[in-house]
Design goal:
The complex is a heterodimer.
Chain A: E1 3-14, E2 17-28, E3 32-36, H1 43-50, E4 58-63, H2 70-75, E5 76-79, H3 91-101, H4 107-116, H5 130-142, E6 148-152, H6 160-173, E7 179-184, H7 187-190, E8 196-201, E9 204-210, H8 211-218, H9 222-229
Parallel strand pairs in A: 3-7, 3-8, 5-6, 6-7
Antiparallel strand pairs in A: 1-2, 1-4, 8-9
Chain B: H1 2-38, H2 47-81, H3 85-88, H4 95-125, H5 128-148, H6 150-183, H7 188-213, H8 221-229, H9 233-268
Helix pairs in contact in B: 1-2, 1-4, 2-4, 2-6, 4-6, 5-6, 6-7, 6-9
């Protein structure tokens, strides 16, 4: 099967710290994969490498067969774990901005989602609460018809009641045949939408499996397995 | 893609510059009105409003200079190395396009700011008495051009190119220093300023070494004076033009070095927080 993400001996050193220790990983196309691990395990480093925000120390990383660069950025839709919106813009400016730079951005879809979440496109981003900004950002990211969605802690900042809604938004809006990588430590909440999981700890891949295998072979939920593997 | 980046760069920065330009021109006109009607009998209490408006005008000009510098640094730092960098660097454009667009728009504002400042001084200063002086000054420039022909136009062109290249070099030096400052975890601003000064020192050392390899003439004013005394005007003009050409090459070479250094840092050493 074709893989959307391929890592070969991928290593990343920060001064005085080994963030990724020669990892090998292959994620097949068309799946929703949870990238799970405790804080400081290397999740965000891997995600930054996928998006070309970092350069690997050694090894190779391919996204749909492409090295990180202009071509790979066209097909990846990335939600970082912080707000990156230009605060002098309003929501409508931001939609135009995405439409200008990403050919696969669907404006109609974005306006539709804004309406359903009762966000006024003329509101300035500066005046919005953190939670609303995160919703706007998620709408922008999910309105792209991308081949790979990379979501870093997409539900970390919102209340439990809104989490289900956001997960529905994610599931309801990602393009068919696309792949999705979700990094989070709120495993119970995302478990039901995952096809596969990658456990990562201290820069090493601890386990890769399908969710069905975990349930059948181990007879456990992903959450329970996670607690067992990463027991302090 | 470069034109789109430039479009958003203008939109992000015009909010600061356009109102400032408007205020400067308005205050230049207000001061002019005061000058026109109260020129001879301005004393005591009647001088207070004029005193205030002229101070405001001077403060606005100072603010424009400071803002031009601040916006140059802030747009680069915030949009590329701050949180907004997560979006900027995941746009499907090469890193150098970000440098190009920011550099070009910063240059544009520098030149427009210079032009607006000069225009406001002109508005403020020109009146019936000195308009004839000004037209005489223009005529003298005209005479200079007709006297030296092509050489004079070339000199003008050189001065314009020198202005543009020097401004670009300073902008790129700021960008290079900002990326170096960002490497430091705690003291970004201090490291950045240090890097800027360090780059300046390196540039001066290299330039003075190169000049000593040349005939060493420009280091000594007495020699220089003696050298020029024996020349006809046209010969002297030629030497001046070669001198300016040297300055252009110097700024261009260092500007290019800062450009490639910044691009290398942004592509290979980028590490957003």
């Amino acid at each position: 099967m074709d893989s959307i993400l391929e890592c070969r001996n991928l290593t990343k050193y920060y001064p005085g710290c080994l963030a990724l220790n020669s990892i090998n990983l292959s994620i097949p196309k068309g799946q929703i994969v949870g990238l799970l691990g405790p804080n400081g395990s290397g999740k965000t480093t891997l995600i930054k490498l996928i998006n070309g925000l970092l350069v690997p120390t050694s090894g190779e990383l391919l996204v749909n067969g492409l090295k990180p660069g202009v071509e790979s950025k066209k097909i990846i839709s990335y939600l970082p774990e912080r707000t990156y919106l230009n605060d002098w813009m309003n929501v409508q400016n931001m939609i135009d901005y995405f439409g200008d730079f990403y050919e696969n951005f669907n404006k109609a879809k974005a306006y539709d989602m804004l309406q359903r979440l009762h966000i006024n496109p003329n509101n300035r981003l500066k005046t919005m609460s953190k939670g609303t900004k995160e919703k706007v950002q998620l709408i922008l990211v999910m309105s792209r018809e991308a081949e790979l969605y990379v979501l870093d802690e997409p539900i970390g900042g919102v209340d439990p009641a809104a989490r289900d809604y956001i997960l529905e938004t994610i599931i309801g809006n990602y393009s068919e045949n696309a792949s999705l990588i979700i990094s989070t430590h709120l495993i119970e909440d995302v478990e039901k939408i995952l096809d596969g999981v990658v456990f990562i700890n201290m820069g090493n891949i601890v386990l890769t499996s399908t969710v069905d295998d975990i349930r059948e072979k181990e007879n456990k939920s992903v959450d329970a397995l996670f607690r067992e593997v990463f027991k302090c | 893609m470069l034109s789109k980046l430039m479009k958003y760069e203008i939109e992000a920065t015009q909010r600061i510059f356009l109102p400032l330009y408007g205020l400067i021109l308005i205050f230049a006109l207000i001061n002019k009105v005061f000058l026109k009607f109260n020129m001879n009998n301005m004393s005591g209490i009647s001088a207070v409003p004029f005193g205030i408006t002229i101070v405001v005008y001077c403060l606005l000009i100072a603010a424009l200079m400071v803002m031009t510098l601040v916006v140059t640094i802030q747009r680069f730092y915030k949009n590329l190395l701050g949180d907004e960098g997560y979006l900027s660097f995941t746009l499907p454009v090469p890193a150098h396009s970000h440098i190009d667009s920011k550099m070009i728009i910063a240059l544009m504002w520098n030149i427009v700011s210079l032009f607006v400042s000069l225009l406001s001084v002109f508005l403020l200063a020109i009146n019936e008495n000195n308009i004839s002086n000004f037209s005489q000054f223009c005529m003298e420039i005209g005479t200079f051009f007709s006297q030296y022909g092509a050489a004079a136009y070339l000199l003008l062109l050189e001065l314009i190119v020198l202005l543009v290249v020097s401004v670009l070099q300073v902008i790129l030096q700021i960008y290079a220093a900002t990326t170096v400052g960002n490497l430091s975890g705690k003291h970004k601003l201090l490291t950045g300023i240090g890097a800027y000064i360090g780059f300046g020192v390196i540039q001066q050392i290299i330039t003075s070494i190169l000049m000593n390899f040349g005939h060493g003439l420009t280091n000594n004013w007495v020699d220089l004076n003696r050298f020029f005394t024996g020349l006809t005007d046209l010969q002297a003009l030629r030497y001046v033009m070669w001198g300016i050409f040297g300055l252009i090459v110097n700024a261009a070479v260092f500007g290019a070095a800062f450009y490639f250094f910044t691009n290398w840092m942004l592509t290979k050493k980028l590490n957003l927080e």
